[in-house]
Amino acid sequence: MSLRAEDVHRSFDHPSGAVHVLRGVDLAVEPGELVTLSGPSGSGKSALITLLCGFDQPDRGTVAVCGRSLATPPAWRLCAVLPQALGLSGELTLAENIALPLRLDPERRGEPVADAVAGLMAELGIDGLGDRYPAEVSFGQQQRTALARAVIAGPKVLLADEPTAHLDHHSAPAAVRVLRRAADAGSAVLIATHHDLVHEAADRTLVLEAGRISVE
Ligand SMILES: Nc1ncnc2c1ncn2[C@@H]1O[C@H](COP(=O)(O)OP(=O)(O)OP(=O)(O)O)[C@@H](O)[C@H]1O
């Protein structure tokens, strides 16, 4: 089992009172599966992805990646994430951002990365931008950079929050192909999305509604 959540609860305090967004979420994603997460806007998809990658902690319940519970965000090779806010480093070029998970991995630090980076950039239609910084490209180009960074190390678990939200109908299919290939190579992939193209590439879909998961 690559990714598992059991009875996950999370509330947020607001001036008008606490909002109990996640009310007992259970889910599991196996290696090689591409699973989409749908649900109405505001249902808590981003809140759940943030918990599953260890950036936030549940009030109750457990999250485990490859059998390990998450007290802190795990290494990229274990769990890579494409967050809605992307989280690119502004001090690194696009090519350096994409290579980061390999550079941070003590076992792979010395590997040549240029070909893998160039291949992903070409496939995603951002070739020729490798020497630019995130602030010098569009948000859609930044999003494809964050996608390339998420897949480059072949993570056990790949989480993506609306990975095609800023892509047009030319660039979205390539992004979906890259995500599908990650699953076919053995990653457990969970994608929060409203996009039909991503749902069509999925093995199954989970629906988050009223704080719990149902199966579509
Ligand atoms: N860090 C936070 N602090 C306070 N409230 C939060 C926080 N994160 C999420 N929420 C609240 O949790 C609810 C769910 O938000 P979330 O962004 O997870 O929804 P979503 O399903 O991803 O929506 P969308 O499809 O529009 O992206 C909202 O009511 C939001 O205000």
From TrEMBL:
UniProt KW Acyltransferase keyword: no
Keywords, ordered alphabetically: ATP-binding, Nucleotide-binding
Calcium in keyword set: no
Domain ABC transporter: 3-216
A GO cellular-component term linked to this record: plasma membrane
Alphabetical list of Pfam families matching this protein: ABC_tran (PF00005)
Matching InterPro entries: AAA+_ATPase, ABC_transporter-like_ATP-bd, ABC_transpr_LolD-like, P-loop_NTPase
UniProt-recorded Gene Ontology molecular function terms: ATP binding; ATP hydrolysis activity; transmembrane transporter activity
Name the record gives this protein: ATP-binding cassette domain-containing protein
Protein's organism: Umezawaea endophytica
